[in-house]
Design goal:
This protein has 10 helices and 8 strands. With about 230 residues, it is an alpha/beta fold. The protein has a single domain, classed as Alpha-Beta Barrel (TIM Barrel). Helix 4 runs parallel beside helix 6. The longest helix has 16 residues. The chain is globular, with a radius of gyration of 17 Å. The chain starts with 9 loop residues before the first helix and ends with a helix. Keywords: Cytoplasm, Lyase, Schiff base.
Length: about 230
């Protein structure tokens, strides 16, 4: 572990983690597992696929310290803006505390940048005052496209840049460096995809990542690492 990494408690680590069950095959049991883990460890937010939200609202109704997140345009980002706006409105009305949307990756790669930025602006206006995290899916982008997307997301007024859905591949330190090169600390950064160890999380946190989207097994593994480390200090 990097000796320059500040000591962070397991309680603080938990408040950096959005625990998720957002695969196409995530089952009711998977969602119940992440809810149980969120209650046990006090994770900051739970993210299911939208169809499982009623279960999450019911199970977390007495645990307001854990937020409930909704996903828009997930995982492709290729829906029409009208569809994304309807979904965002539905999630906000249902009671979600945070919204993570996927930008239109195909349009970004096609150079249709005004349309990409305008869509983000519209979604932000729809969900406000809820925080909006915009997913660019770094594993599918070139370095230059990552830089362009970072600038667009910042300019469109989103609250977070998010690196991925977790479906397409892992976020690397190189990806984080590219994003930080463009936006510095002017917008918060959430990493999803490939964060499976405490060392990885701490190194990324040191580089300025303030939230992590992590699946059930990896989140529990990280918490176990952190708690064991504390027990031996």
């Amino acid at each position: 572990m990097d000796t320059n990494t500040p000591n962070i408690s397991s309680r603080e680590i938990a408040r950096l983690i959005d625990i998720s069950a957002v695969r196409a095959d995530s089952t009711r049991q998977d969602v119940e597992d992440i809810i149980e883990a969120a209650i046990k460890h006090n994770f900051i937010c739970v993210f299911p696929m939208p169809g499982m939200l009623p279960l999450v609202f019911e199970k977390l109704k007495n645990h307001p310290q854990t937020g409930i997140g909704g996903v828009v345009g997930f995982p492709s980002g290729a829906e029409t803006t009208t569809c994304k706006l309807f979904q965002a409105q539905e999630l906000k009305k249902a009671g979600c505390n945070e919204i993570d949307m996927v930008l239109n990756i195909g349009k970004l790669k096609s150079g249709m940048l005004t349309e990409v930025e305008d869509e983000i602006r519209q979604i932000k206006a729809e969900v406000s005052p809820l925080p909006l995290k915009v997913i660019m899916e770094v594993a599918l982008l070139t370095d230059e496209e990552i830089k362009i997307a970072s600038t667009l997301i910042l300019r469109a007024g989103a609250d977070y840049i998010k690196t991925g859905t977790g479906w397409a591949g892992a976020t690397t330190l190189h990806h984080i460096a590219l994003i930080k090169e463009m936006v510095g600390d002017t917008i918060r950064l959430k990493v999803a995809g490939g964060v499976r160890t405490l060392d990885t999380l701490l190194e990324m946190h040191r580089l300025g990542v303030s939230r992590f989207g992590i699946g059930y097994r990896s989140a529990l593994h990280i918490m176990e690492e952190c708690i064991n480390k504390e027990a031996h200090e």
